Amino acid sequence: MSQETVYAIASGKGGVGKTTTTVNLGTALAQADKRVAVVDVDLGMANLAGFVSLAPDSTTLHDVLTDDATIDEATYRLADNIVALPSGTGLDDYANASPEGLRGVVEKLRDTYDYVFLDVGAGISHETVLPLGLADGVLVVSTPEPAAIQDSQKTVKLTNRTGGTVEGLILTRTHPNSSLSYEEIATRLEVPLIGTIPEDPIARKSVYAGTPLVVYKPDGPAATAYRQIAADLAGIDVARTKIEDPEDDESDSSDGDGGGDGGWEASPDEVSSAITEAESDT
């Protein structure tokens, strides 16, 4: 894995665990004594604030982008070695903020921290496209579900068009005994498979608790997978732990950002059809 500094965590579809992935990768690296900043660049639909416990009048990235605050004033310590820059949740904040200021924010953070993770909003808009080109590498997050895979193909192509570099694919809500080849999904998307995050019933509980999964249940299957991906990103050797299926009686979970795709996986034919359709749309 190449040594990058700034990663954009992106997805074409909401509810696939993008914010969960951002926070857990950042926390895992912080636990490895790396200095990490996590930035919520989803200016319209902020998700990171729940991990920071902001008051309604707290300073956020929106204030930085309107020149009403400094980066330091909008930065909040999450734990040892890791800080967060959340975005505001008000419509007025969104209307007044200019995404163009993100370039200066990213450059200052790049000089201060070992790793910077940009939690990018889903969909296609100026504020979601801009971070793809600012990052050293883009990590695309998806579930093995046709609509998510189709949107991931669009995200890959959009990143290429902005001059960004797709570092690879992270698949969430996977199953170790699945007949679906996750490597094949990445191959069809023409990107490396960075790693897979297995379905884990504890993931939903950690989100509700406002605690990263790698802290909430560090030895769980999803937490173990996140730590391995973080180690690969940083070039750190860690003990690989066998990932088992979670208990069947807790299968009503989702991987993270609130939403849920029902927990089912696509068949190989559905994957092929989704990618082909996405290619025809771009």
UniProtKB/TrEMBL annotation:
<dbReference type="InterPro" id="IPR010224">
    <property type="entry name" value="MinD_archaea"/>
</dbReference>
<dbReference type="GO" id="GO:0005829">
    <property type="term" value="C:cytosol"/>
</dbReference>
<dbReference type="GO" id="GO:0051301">
    <property type="term" value="P:cell division"/>
</dbReference>
<dbReference type="InterPro" id="IPR050625">
    <property type="entry name" value="ParA/MinD_ATPase"/>
</dbReference>
<dbReference type="GO" id="GO:0009898">
    <property type="term" value="C:cytoplasmic side of plasma membrane"/>
</dbReference>
<dbReference type="GO" id="GO:0005524">
    <property type="term" value="F:ATP binding"/>
</dbReference>
<keyword id="KW-0547">Nucleotide-binding</keyword>
<feature type="binding site">
    <location>
        <begin position="13"/>
        <end position="20"/>
    </location>
    <ligand>
        <name>ATP</name>
    </ligand>
</feature>
<keyword id="KW-0131">Cell cycle</keyword>
<dbReference type="GO" id="GO:0051782">
    <property type="term" value="P:negative regulation of cell division"/>
</dbReference>
<dbReference type="InterPro" id="IPR025501">
    <property type="entry name" value="MinD_FleN"/>
</dbReference>
<feature type="domain" description="CobQ/CobB/MinD/ParA nucleotide binding">
    <location>
        <begin position="8"/>
        <end position="210"/>
    </location>
</feature>
<dbReference type="Pfam" id="PF01656">
    <property type="entry name" value="CbiA"/>
</dbReference>
<protein>
    <submittedName>
        <fullName>Cell division ATPase MinD</fullName>
    </submittedName>
</protein>
<feature type="region of interest" description="Disordered">
    <location>
        <begin position="240"/>
        <end position="282"/>
    </location>
</feature>
<keyword id="KW-0067">ATP-binding</keyword>
<keyword id="KW-0132">Cell division</keyword>
<dbReference type="InterPro" id="IPR002586">
    <property type="entry name" value="CobQ/CobB/MinD/ParA_Nub-bd_dom"/>
</dbReference>
<dbReference type="GO" id="GO:0016887">
    <property type="term" value="F:ATP hydrolysis activity"/>
</dbReference>
<dbReference type="InterPro" id="IPR027417">
    <property type="entry name" value="P-loop_NTPase"/>
</dbReference>
<feature type="compositionally biased region" description="Acidic residues">
    <location>
        <begin position="245"/>
        <end position="255"/>
    </location>
</feature>
